[in-house]
Amino acid sequence: MYINSLGHYLPATLLPNSYFLDVNGLTDEWIYSRTGIKTRSKVSNGENTNTMAIEAVKAASEKLSFDIKEVDLIVGASYSPYDTVVTIAHEVQHYFDIDGAKALYLSSACSSLLNALEVVQGYFALGKATKALVVASEHNTAYSHESDEKSGHLWGDGATAMFVTKEKLDGTLGEIIDIQTMGLGNIGKANESVYLHPKNDGLLMPMGKDVFIHACQYMSKVLVEILEKNNYTISDLDYMVPHQANMRIVKHIVHELQYPEEKVFNNISELGNTGCASTGIALSQNIDKIKKDDLVGFTVFGGGYSTGSMLVKF
What we know:
The chain is of the alpha+beta class. A hairpin with a 3-residue loop joins strand 12 (295-302) and strand 13 (306-313). The protein folds into two domains: 2-165, Peroxisomal Thiolase, Chain A, domain 1 (3-Layer(aba) Sandwich); 174-313, Peroxisomal Thiolase, Chain A, domain 1 (3-Layer(aba) Sandwich). It has helices at residues 21-24, 28-35, 49-61, 88-96, 112-125, 208-229, 247-257, 268-271, 278-286; strands spanning 2-9, 13-16, 39-42, 73-77, 102-106, 131-139, 157-165, 174-183, 195-197, 202-204, 239-242, 295-302, 306-313.
């Protein structure tokens, strides 16, 4: 299947590390040295997961080579929903008046974008859809606690959208060669390391070390596996797009795989952890750097736990 167009939306507000000194007592140096984050994106009043999703779709629609009303499948991905009834997919369908499309919502924490694309792959294989819209949007700051010294300073907001087709059409950006995802809820402290209880505690990460250890392990592992499965090696990869959770995780992966850091798309320094939307945002921000025939690898890890990887040939 093929990526026909993509786009992203980011709120205008960026909170600097200095903001947190009075909020949770953490200094700019402390935050940056442990996370690589300098600022993080935060929505303005009136914005939410659904509104950001719509703006991301608008951006992706600018270079779409077919009428958006031809979309027959919409998949929304998020763990920080604005509405669990009128989901991202339904709100997008309503706003753009996409008649008759299937609309569904899924969540597998920060792996959700790749899970959504894999679901599309399944619909295409079954002959139940031919043109899909995948939208990932995270409003982390709606649920996070800025005063929490363990994770309150990590979170950013943002959204990304991809139009994906079963067949190659005019204007196609790249071919999705392969996707693989996996649930890891049975390992480590998966059920308590990071969680979001909407009516109670909100979004917290009490066991960040456990998340860090397993993210480093699996993000390297699944990327190598998908490359080998498709007869590639790490040296064949022109760019890497990792989940934007923590710069130390990215540096660990780069070191372990002996991959050039300058070929890794990163935005965590500016945006913080934008959840499952992060890889799509990073790709959209850097799409102009990619040349014809470039091979780009994605690798993600989500709380819960989950992981996944994807290869795209442009």
